Structures are given as structure tokens and as C-alpha cells.
Amino acid sequence: MLEFLDFEAPVADLEGKIAELRAMAQGDAKVNIADEVKSLEKKANKILADLYQSLTPWQKAQVARHRQRPHALQYIETLITDYVPLAGDRKFAEDEAVVGGLGRFEGQPVVVIGQEKGSDTASRLKHNFGMAKPEGYRKAVRLMEMANRFGLPVLTFVDTSGAYPGVDAEERGQAEAIARSTDCCLSLGVPLISVIIGEGGSGGAIAIATANTVLMLEHSIYSVISPEGAASILWRDPARAKDAAVALKITAQDLKKFGVIDEIIPEPLGGAQRKPEQAMQSTAEAIARTLRAYSGLSADLLRTQRREKFLNIGRGL
Questions:
Q1: Is residue 172 part of a domain?
Q2: For the whole prediction, is pTM greater than 0.90?
Q3: Structural domain boundaries, residue 99
Q4: What confidence tens digit (pLDDT) does each residue in 276-295 have?
Q5: How far apart are CA 105 and CA 155, in angstroms?
Q6: What distances in angstroms separate CA 267 from CA 64, 79, 83, 123, one per listed residue?
């Protein structure tokens, strides 16, 4: 059953009435509810369309964090065939917050890496809510270096509130691991395509998203810090997260304007959580189109294009 966000309450009320009518009709075959249900569905879709055409940055953050939104493993399962997961950083341990391996995208061999949040309590704990430790980023580096060695494009699915901030992660060199992962992205001689599928949080996201092309789903967010974190630092008041969300320019629309991302992938009406298959199909089309654009380019040209892209962010504004 779909979970509704707070601002979707009017839609939830109408869909609740539709469910009641259908239950009533099942109990009495003589009851004709078709016209009334059609009218309520039309009204609900109109309200939903109006809501999603004018989402505030804070509301977009809520949509991006929706727990029923498709996560990295769902994208990999749907878009990647012959997938072989690879584990461990060969230095310390396996980090379940970062998933990845070898597979084929539309028949083309690729290396895929994703940040997995989990979809229920057990899986969220297993994947540490998508917050990677140093070993997670070192695993990402291992996979990217493998891709570079064998000339395979890299696809990354970004969805994290940020890198894990625990003492143990800092003791094992969290900042250094993020920096090396970012540097590895920049040095690749193969195409690197990143997709922001939910949250793109700070260095935890950029470590696998320093890509030739950064795609972003319409209602995802991407920022240097979470709105709550910014509000706590700037105003000593986490309740001002709504104000911080506006100031941070976290939406795909703002980031496209600034040149931080390259393309916005449209989502189904009401967000990717309503029609995951449709959202993933749109993502596949965008990835395929982007991969074709990089076909045949030399390693030096790919590196130069990637570096210039990030050096040019914000210029001319």
C-alpha cells in the first residue's frame, strides 16, 4: 500500500473514499459506483498534478526520501542483466551501504555501483541507511579501477544522506577514502554516468558522482549538506530545515540551471514511488542515450571532458 506524505493529505482522503466505495460494491453487486469512482479519481489526479507542479524544495526532499521510492538494488535488478555482485574493499571489510558488480546494460558490459538505503527496517540496518564507511568507498574505487582496466563503462546510482559520520569511520580515514574515490572518478579513461535517484548528500554522493554526465530524477535532491544539518549550523534550529532547503538550491531544476547536473529525468505523476517501473524505464532511456554519446571517445578526451565539466560549474552565473 502506498504511503502518503503529509502534503498529500487531500489526495489520501479521496483515495480512501474510492477504496471505501469499491469495498461497498464488492459486498453488494447491485451497487453501481463506476461514475462516482471515475469522478473521484479525476479529482484526485487533478489535485496530485497541481501539488507536484508546485512542490517546494522541502517537499521535494520528502519525496526524495520516500521509503517506497525505488532504490539502487531495484534499479540494478531491473536494468542490469547477468549481474554478478562483488564484495569487499580488499583492505578491511565489506560495506553493505555500497553495492556493485559486473553486468550488462542493454547487452553492453558495464560495472555498476550503487548506494543502497534499504526498504524496510531489517534491510535499512543491513545497509546502514545508505551511509557508507571508508571501506565502502574503497570498494567503489576497486570496482572503478577494474572497469578502467577492462575498458568498461561505469554506471553509478546515488542515494545517500551522506557518508557515515561515526567515530569508527573517521578512525579508518573517511575523508581520505572519499577524496580517493573522487580522484578515481576523475582519472577514469572510460565513460562514467551517475544518476541521482533519491538523495545526493555531500561528499558521500560526490565520491561516486564525479561523472562525465550526471543525470537526476525530477524529484530527487542533491546538496552539500542536508537541510536539517544546515539549519542546525546556521540558525541553531533544525525546525528551520524548510528555509535551509530553499537557500541550498537542492532541486534538480536549480542544479540544472547551475550546471551541476546535466539532465533531469522526468518522474511519473506523484513521484517515482507511485510507478517505479515507469521511473526506471525513463532512467534506462536516459542512460542508453548518454552511453551512445560517449561511444568511441578516447580515454584522454573522456578525462578532459569530465574535468572541464566540474571546473566550469558556476562560471558565467
A1: yes
A2: yes
A3: 61-311
A4: 999 999 999 999 999 999 99
A5: 9
A6: 11, 17, 25, 25
